[in-house]
Amino acid sequence: MKKITKIFGLLAVAAGFTLSSCIEETFPESSTVTSEQVGASSSALEALVSGIPAQMAQGYLVYGDQVHETDMAYPQFMIAFTEMMGDMYPLTSNYGYDWYYRYNTFNAGFGKNGYYSFLTWFTLYKFVKSANDVIASVDFENETNPEIKGYAGAAYACRAFDYFLLTVLFEPVENIYTDCSKVLGLTVTKVTEETTPDDAKNSPRLTHDEMIEFILSDLDKAEEALSNYTPSSKLLPNLAVVYGLKAKVYLWDEDYANAAKYARMAIDESGATPVTETQWEDPTTGFAQANQAWMWYIKYSAENMGNLCNFTGWMSGEADWGYASLTCPGIDASLYDKMSDTDFRKHTFLDPDKYDYYDYKTCRDEEFINNKPAYLALKFRCLQGNYETYSIGGAVDVPIMRVEEMYFIEAYATGMSQGVSAGLSMLNDFIKTYRDPNYNGKANTERDFQLALLTQMRIEFWGEGNAFPLAKRIQPDVVQNYEGTNAPAEIFKINCKGIKPNWTLMIPLDEMEANAAITDDTNNPDPSNTVATPVEIGTFAPANN
Fold first, then answer.
1. Which CATH number among 1.25.40.890, 1.10.3080.10, 1.10.20.10, 2.70.70.10 corresponds to the domain 1-59+106-229+488-545?
2. Which of 99, 282, 322, 391 could potentially form a cystine with 302 if both were Cys, beta carbons 3.0 to 4.6 Å apart?
3. What are the pLDDT digits (tens) for 223-264?
């Protein structure tokens, strides 16, 4: 009888976190369920698979206790990516309550001993562990039950997404602030259901090409399985999501023909249509409840959240609970100004003229709005408009993939493969049809087109982070110190040429100590303290060599 593998849980911080925590340990048959037993029971396997989306919304996932409020599974990446791009600020003098602000300023906590590299690495490898648990339980090649094979397919899709995020965060790109020459083209270490403890002790980083091949192989398996099975809810990836993930991966790999192809396949397969103006601005359900545009999402419940460690508590400008009430999360003023007055997305950020500009749809009263800072975000609502009770107002759905992203990928990939005019036409058609009837983007060069499309993605996915992978590829410059900036303190007043150096994170020391293949020579450079602040308006900070 074949034994199912049991994956180690992560140890306490004092004991250290390593990839050996995420690999297989084979136990005697008497001490654990066998793969045949799981495989024979679709209900048992369903429970195992259902744990994946639950884990993606779990507060205090890595530490297992209230150690750090950013330890909030997948939503941490949505916030971190937005702050990395300089698109989001805590707008009050209480910016220290925004524990994510280091992603925006990056001058501490990003070394190999740093918290921020540590948390991202081990969050994603915990996700990998859960996918591996499911994959190890199914004989994929020989399984004939479409439901059981479909569960494995969903796990393959989730694992592919996990490694995509790891690659985006840890694959370096050249920049003027850090020397990446020794590690260009390297991604992360691979842990699968077949990885042994000895393997993990000397597990080198895969090259970019090796990682892309591995991720796509997982997605091929997911496509095969999910062609014959559709999960009962969008808490798990379905075939349309698999196509969407392929589009994202091909875009990262700069394979534009395939990126456009799979983005269109995702749109068509999903049958999804973009969020409407009414849905976007709804004060009780806006970005709090899944709708026809959402292809994949996670769900909070009163049982898996606390008042501080949850997405709405960080991001809702209307909530009275959580850190948002102290930090007032808002949009960068220059990004806000890139929206015209006929773009309804602008209505979910407070204009400096408040109600003289727009009659805001909100669960709060006019006095509340008038007392809040300009550019405050109302995009993410408290469910039912309940801004007082976190277990109700925070029990929201959180989007992972919306169909809108596929339209942007299709337009960008078309512009890069078939010419700027073709891509710009698709971008203009989308924005005019679904967001701003008066939009007429112009681009004379490929660079103009790249930046125009990225700007629209940054607006569309503000707080969701989906624009970050493309931004890291495009390297658009990050300008936070300019005339009229709403950066709340000097440390935020950064101008970086191309990218911020912390767009590539270091592999944490805990992993280095357990994995002989990760050394100072094979780790990414430390981005901490590489840019002086404040940077003079109109200039970029040089590398701090």
1. 1.25.40.890
2. 391
3. 999 999 999 999 999 999 999 999 999 999 999 999 999 999
